Amino acid sequence: MKLEASLKHFSPQGMHISDDVKSTSPNRLNGTDIMTGIGVTSSRARFGLAAFFGKAGISKTDEQLAVQALARYAIDTAPKNVRKAAGKALGRCCLILAQFAFAEYSRSAETTGACRVCSGTGKVQTTITERKVTYPWGKAPYWAKRSRAVRPSDWEKWTEVTTIVNGKCEACDGKGKVNARCRCGGSGQVLDRKVTKERGAPVYKTCERCSGNGFSTTPSTAAYKAILTFIPDLHVRTWTRNWKPFCDALVDVCWKEERHADKEFQQATNF
């Protein structure tokens, strides 16, 4: 049984009645068997199991444990150039890298974040300038229209009034949050119009915007700005050359540990 299948036991919807054969059906395992498999997996692959449950949103405690374990791994395996640049702030920098790496690992098309346009408020301020007319000396008399010496506009006073109006943010449709889903709809594939026109049948290609992931990745500049609070003199080229590959390696560690936990869970429930 795969580790992903265990998630349904954390949010049961109700009684399920089926005529599946108990000996061959994947539903032959009851809740006790699943919890036993999770316990065995936790003793053999604690980091990978905590990372998976934290990514799935099952437990905030597992998410914190995974970030702490990833930070300790980052401290132990930090490259020489990273250690030299961080100095005494190595621990705090590794914790920031671990947080950003775990956020990238758990990111999906359903991940939401605060809108950058309205800063999560859902409203934007729009400045509107209008011209208004007033009559400080009263309105022009009736004979002003026939006179050649004066005009009715001489009794008018025009002023520009600027007002600030709170309107709905168009980027997030007033929700204050935006999804990480790509414009391809999260499928990772888009219609190749040129080839489709040549062949006369729909042909799809990998989305170039998201590289087939179906969602946009977290910009590395966010982690770079967070590191600058502890290392103000860190140059962007040093970050790109030494720090960013190390942060990407931490993301790969999360996926590697999840695969290890999945393998251990399958062995624990294969009976």
Q: Sheet bearing the most strands, described? A: 2 strands, antiparallel
Q: Beta-strand percentage?
A: 5-15%
Cross-sheet strand order for the largest sheet:
1-4
CATH class of the largest domain: Mainly Alpha
Structural class: alpha+beta
- Distance between the terminal alpha carbons, to the nearest Å? 10 Å
Total discrete domains? 3
Helix run count: 8
What is the number of strand segments? Answer: 6
As a percent range, the share of helical residues equals: 40-55%
Q: If you average the pLDDT, what whole number results?
A: 83
Query: Which regions are unreliable across 5 or more consecutive residues at pLDDT < 50?
Result: none
What is the ordering of alpha helices and beta strands? HHHHHEEEEEHEHH
Rg of Cα set: 30 Å
CATH architecture of the largest domain: Orthogonal Bundle
Describe this structure in words.
There is one protein chain. Helix 1 packs across helix 8, helix 2 (46-56) packs across helix 3 (60-77) and helix 2 (46-56) crosses helix 8 (236-269). The strands form three sheets. A two-stranded antiparallel ribbon has the order 1-4. Strands 2-3 form a two-stranded antiparallel sheet. It has a two-stranded antiparallel ribbon with strand order 5-6. It starts with 30 loop residues before the first helix and ends with a helix. It has eight helices and six strands, in the order αααααβββββαβαα. It folds into three domains: 3-107 and 217-269, Enzyme I, Chain A, domain 2 (Orthogonal Bundle), CATH 1.10.274; 112-179, no CATH class; 183-213, no CATH class. The mean pLDDT is 83. The chain is 43% helix and 13% strand. The longest helix has 34 residues, at 236-269. With 271 residues, the chain is α+β, with helices and mostly antiparallel strands. It has helices spanning 31-44, 46-56, 60-77, 80-86, 90-105, 193-199, 220-228, 236-269; strands at residues 112-114, 123-134, 157-168, 177-179, 189-191, 204-206. The radius of gyration is 30 Å and the shape is elongated.
